[in-house]
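Minimal example, chain plus coenzyme A.
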Amino acid sequence: MRLRPYAEQDRRLTAELEGDAEVMAHLGGPAPGGRAESVHERRVAGREREWYRTILADPDDEPAGVVAVFRSAWEGREIHELGIMLLAGRARRHGLAAGAVRLAVEEVRASGLVREVHAFIGAENRAAGVVARRTGFVNHGPCDVDYEGVPIRCDHWILEL
Ligand SMILES: CC(C)(COP(=O)(O)OP(=O)(O)OC[C@H]1O[C@@H](n2cnc3c(N)ncnc32)[C@H](O)[C@@H]1OP(=O)(O)O)[C@@H](O)C(=O)NCCC(=O)NCCS
């Protein structure tokens, strides 16, 4: 598995991820029409102090999902937040996510620009919680997050770099 910078050619990957009920089950549900396009544009544009990466799976480098560390806001201050999505189906349940998170975090650490990475993980999202713990994030307890207008009960995970 490897990562490459998210690019124009990933428009369809984002549409597939954002439109899938299983992928979005803990993220407020499938994106309404048009939102995937704006998510794609934001990813392509977000090169400065943000890390949007396409996950390429073995053995044939097929795009399997997206991992990102992006700028966000929490309690009135700017933070860096981790997000990851894998396509439903064969990309899942092989430990791919933890490998992708480790690679993304290494890039962020190497930049020297970020001291901590935050993740807001749905309280019912067992797979994402396991991945966060395995990659060194610490659970700082429950919080309520607004995901594209949908309120979600989350745990607030933080990784100190
Ligand atoms: C979260 C996600 C990235 C995990 O990817 P993954 O590579 O399939 O995860 P892993 O294979 O490392 O599995 C991690 C653990 O979760 C478990 N798991 C995986 N999918 C699960 C599911 N649907 N329900 C319950 N447990 C699940 C695995 O068994 C594993 O636990 P174990 O090692 O104790 O057996 C992936 O499920 C996903 O893309 N989900 C949709 C988007 C999302 O919710 N992202 C997180 C936003 S913060």
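The domain at 2-160 is CATH 3.40.630.30 (Aminopeptidase). The chain has a mean pLDDT of 95.
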